[in-house]
Amino acid sequence: MEKDSAYKKTLPEGCRHCAKGSKLVLFVTGKCNVDCWYCPLSEKKMGKDVVYADEKKVDKKEEILEEARSIDATGTGITGGDPLSEKAERTFEYIEMLKSEFGNDHHIHLYTQTSDLERIKRAYGSGLDEIRFHPHLKNWNRIEKTDFPALLKKIKEEMDIDTGIEIPCIPGKKEETLHLLNEVGKLVDFVNLNELEFSSTNTEALKSRGYEHKSDISSAVKGSQEMALELLEEDIETSAHYCSLAFKDGVQLTNRIKRRAKNTAKEEDVITDEGTIIRGMIETENGKKVAEELRNIFDVSEELMWYDGKKDRIECSLHLLNHIHESLDEKCYGIEIYPTSDSLEVERWPLD
Length: 352
Description:
The chain has 352 residues and is of the alpha/beta class. It folds into 2 domains: 2-260, TIM Barrel (Alpha-Beta Barrel); 265-350, no CATH class. 34% of the residues lie in helices and 24% in strands. It has helices spanning 13-20, 62-70, 88-102, 117-126, 148-158, 174-184, 203-208, 224-232, 245-264, 287-298, 318-324; strands at 6-8, 23-29, 52-53, 56-57, 75-80, 107-112, 130-133, 162-169, 190-195, 213-215, 218-221, 239-243, 270-271, 277-283, 305-308, 313-316, 331-337, 345-350. The chain has a 10-stranded mixed sheet with strand order 1-12-9-8-7-6-5-2-3-4. Strands 13, 14, 15, 16, 17 and 18 form a 6-stranded antiparallel sheet that branches. Strands 10-11 form a two-stranded antiparallel sheet. The radius of gyration is 23 Å and the shape is elongated.
């Protein structure tokens, strides 16, 4: 696959939607009953009871559907924290809502560490199509002595749901990882191996254990990819997939923002090959009033010039601003932004 990702046998259905950029990432809570030292969750989410749909912080559940429509979502990945921990009822509600709105073909997968069979049954009954387990690292080399294999057997017997294991590739833990995969490979439909990554919340824990960055421009951990590709060569009794950090950022995210740009861009926005948007921006006080005055002066619609209340600035067509900026007293810029709900700014340049 692109960006050094690879798989053998069959790629999981949830990953197919993800690779196309058509998967909504639904973060239902930052609460989790397990403390993994390598968890890359951000400070704004870790341990906090918040909900996000892609980059958008959700205050009401209808915003989840709005975000899904903005990317023409064909599926949803439900994550956390742990979606089946103390906020499981919220997860069941969201699954039912998504299936009701988009139909049974809308594929939903979920990540969890729970061993609570009743909660898993509730999620399945709500419409869950695929479940991905993350056993705790301390149990990888003794997984057969835990209740996890029995849980997987119960799921296989009682539910028609795709079941998998999804874990990071931790350099130095190859034997433990291989033991886990060999023991449970025959009980699951797939195994996903993710490239381990540095984040603001796990850097201290990773560095204290001797881990290094893959390169000066990557937050991936050195040696994680090599280990994953070695594991794909092993004779594991199920499909196996390695997802690189570069694939997540350079393929999955890029494809998703391209879909969002297509649906949310303004009339004269310029959409780049990467899916970012280029437009004009005017910095001024009393932006709402100034925007209205400028629209009247230059006889343009609100589609071509508008006030962004969240960022307290005027945005407009760059083509228009290139024509009128010399007659304005305000500071004028060209900007490149992501077409996400937070409109993250990539670059700005002054119009002289």
